[in-house]
Amino acid sequence: MDCYTANWNPLGDSAFYRKYELYSMDWDLKEELRDCLVAAAPYGGPIALLRNPWRKEKAASVRPVLDIYSASGMPLASLLWKSGPVVSLGWSAEEELLCVQEDGAVLVYGLHGDFRRHFSMGNEVLQNRVLDARIFHTEFGSGVAILTGAHRFTLSANVGDLKLRRMPEVPGLQSAPSCWTALCQDRVAHILLAVGPDLYLLDHAACSTVTPPGLAPGVSSFLQMAVSFTYRHLALFTDTGYIWMGTASLKEKLCEFNCNIRAAPKQMVWCSRPRSKERAVVVAWERRLMVVGDAPESIQFVLDEDSYLVPELDGVRIFSRSTHEFLHEVPAASEEIFKIASMAPGALLLEAQKEYEKESQKADEYLREIQELGQLTQAVQQCIEAAGHEHQPDMQKSLLRAASFGKCFLDRFPPDSFVRMCQDLRVLNAVRDYHIGIPLTYSQYKQLTIQVLLDRLVLRRLYPLAIQICEYLRLPEVQGVSRILAHWACYKVQQKDVSDEDVARAINQKLGDTPGVSYSDIAARAYGCGRTELAIKLLEYEPRSGEQVPLLLKMKRSKLALSKAIESGDTDLVFTVLLHLKNELNRGDFFMTLRNQPMALSLYRQFCKHQELETLKDLYNQDDNHQELGSFHIRASYAAEERIEGRVAALQTAADAFYKAKNEFAAKATEDQMRLLRLQRRLEDELGGQFLDLSLHDTVTTLILGGHNKRAEQLARDFRIPDKRLWWLKLTALADLEDWEELEKFSKSKKSPIGYLPFVEICIKQHNKYEAKKYASRVGPEQKVKALLLVGDVAQAADVAIEHRNEAELSLVLSHCTGATDGATADKIQRARAQAQKK
């Protein structure tokens, strides 16, 4: 354990810091880092170098080279810079490289050097040029802050949703500030800048002077400032050699350290971790690295070559031409286990496990000591936690073996934490591999989440590793393997050296019917790459027509889209395509297309019936569909025309169409309707009242109700209304009028073709039993019983039923008999039944 802690450096009494190597860099740099613009992404992200930036001593004809490397120095992309001079580089949270040019344009590149997009920081920046820029991160996304040649600041808190804010002017600012940075407070981005001994805080509304509490006197200038990874703390380096550390709000001082060096540092970054015992700042000069905090002494390292600092969530990455290292505070669990002469439970358990492997009885002594103190559970948890913070797999295994050994002596220790740590470390060791080059720590991995890590592997096109991790962690297919395969397919369609047929086949063989994979999304990517035929082939594998059709329409393959929509049976989808076709094709081609698709034609006719009647008429004319054309003119005569002449003309056109369709019945009915319309208009003129648009029956009824019986009879003769129907109409109308005298005359005018039971029923319906009885006696024998029952004469109904000897009539009368009132009648029926049965 002594050797293990050899690289531990104490900072005060409460914390140790250690620096270990992540990678030996083999990136073969031809220039020093100081001669390049450098940007490194957090969370073990990539490194971008813009070699040979614009300098006077360089030949103007030499173009700069933008190189992108993994954190292990593996080349990812290299391209000649053909745009304008670059002032600053930075990585977004999505690992997109933002290149801020002198003219205010920001060019965005992917991890592999592919150009994504560009945007401008505004006309003012263009006119005054960019002096300096910062890329910063907020909870909304990645932001860009610009210092212009007019010494004004412009920023956007989220480049994904660009909203430029021009910050207030600093009074009396005639030259560039000695140092400045972007702060994020209360979900709002601010600018903090130093001008001589003064600090100014710019927000969206005002410029205010701020003073750090407890700052040592004698400061005439601030040379450097640094904001912590979480934007909660701020460090200021003064020209007196003091480093002030406090909260980012400048309301509270944490500590102040005198480093006795007045030269401005190259870089200054925070080095702390969540729940840190000692917040520290790392300051770098040409050949010296210093770690300072709330302690009288500092930790110092000698830098053998030009280095660059990358602040992380729980430490600082330091890379140079030859090495890539990580400096961080030793986590509490590791410190408890490994510090010299430690008697912590985890330390004793680790020793016990080592002695057990040596088959020494000391293992039992250590174990008993832990158990006597009741700290075995704590010891196991310490070893598991410490394993997560170790970088070397051998030490991870040693600690996990100790934890596993301790678990054997616990009855109810939940295995979840141990299993989860084993899984997490296996994933971390896989991505830390030199060829992958993502040196995540356990704390960074937990903050980043597995989904984001998978996204970053996909960005690096490390699809096999991403799939292996998903399968190992047993992630749901939609979140894991399916999503990665979809990304792989979208990358595959960009390989233009492979034929469309081969790409489509390869994608289908790999994806098959994998749940969560949308072939339409892959086809859309293919279309975006200019491979329309490949997109169509891929859409053949898409089972959802609702996904196929919109993309086919976008690709201007409307007829194919129509066929797919019809196959789906989704009428809404068919209507969508039809309306698109209507706008895309001329009228003739559109109708010809519909003729080849009967279902689409039928649906379009339904649409036209409600929306475009003239188009519907054109369709019927083109198809010589005289039957439907006649129906169309009939509907039009009622819907469109108000004048009787226009309606008759429309009906005449309909009748002609029906004759052409050889539908004589419809033609005759239409002609009858024309006659009726003319007659109704004449009746309105002569009699007044409302007759127009009534049916023939209603017209007759209206005439009877108006007392125009002869006119009604004449109308019935003209239109050959059968006697039965006329009697029914007259009976109903007179009953509604309650003209019982006229009704009686009507009943005696001649023998009723409908019988007299309807007279009884209609009188009862009008609640006039007296009149009903007049007609009950005239009802024929077969309906006599029913008529008598309607008027309430049960006894006479019984006599008639007994006389007829009809069992059905007897049962009907019996059902109308009530208790005491009709008891004698009921007995009479029962006796009649009994006699009938004897015979």
From TrEMBL:
Compartments in which it is found: Late endosome membrane; Lysosome membrane
Positions of the Vps16 C-terminal domain: 517-835
Family matches, as InterPro entries: VPS16 (IPR016534), Vps16_C (IPR006925), Vps16_C_sf (IPR038132), Vps16_N (IPR006926)
GO cellular component term of the entry, any: CORVET complex
Domain Vps16 N-terminal: 4-420
Source domain of life: Eukaryota
Biological-process GO terms, alphabetical: autophagosome maturation; endosomal transport; endosome to lysosome transport; intracellular protein transport; vacuole fusion, non-autophagic
Entry keywords, A to Z: Coiled coil, Endosome, Lysosome, Membrane, Protein transport, Transport
GO molecular function, one term: actin binding
Coiled coil stretches, renumbered: 349-376
Principal subcellular localisation of the protein: membrane
Mode of membrane association: Peripheral membrane protein
Alphabetized Pfam families for the sequence: Vps16_C, Vps16_N
Function: Plays a role in vesicle-mediated protein trafficking to lysosomal compartments including the endocytic membrane transport and autophagic pathways. Believed to act as a core component of the putative HOPS and CORVET endosomal tethering complexes.
Annotated family: Belongs to the VPS16 family.
The protein's assembly and partners: Core component of at least two putative endosomal tethering complexes, the homotypic fusion and vacuole protein sorting (HOPS) complex and the class C core vacuole/endosome tethering (CORVET) complex. Their common core is composed of the class C Vps proteins VPS11, VPS16, VPS18 and VPS33A, which in HOPS further associates with VPS39 and VPS41 and in CORVET with VPS8 and TGFBRAP1. Interacts with RAB5C. Interacts with STX17, MON1B. Associates with adapter protein complex 3 (AP-3) and clathrin:AP-3 complexes.
Protein name in UniProt: Vacuolar protein sorting-associated protein 16 homolog
Organism field: Aotus nancymaae
Lineage start: Eukaryota, Metazoa, Chordata, Craniata, Vertebrata
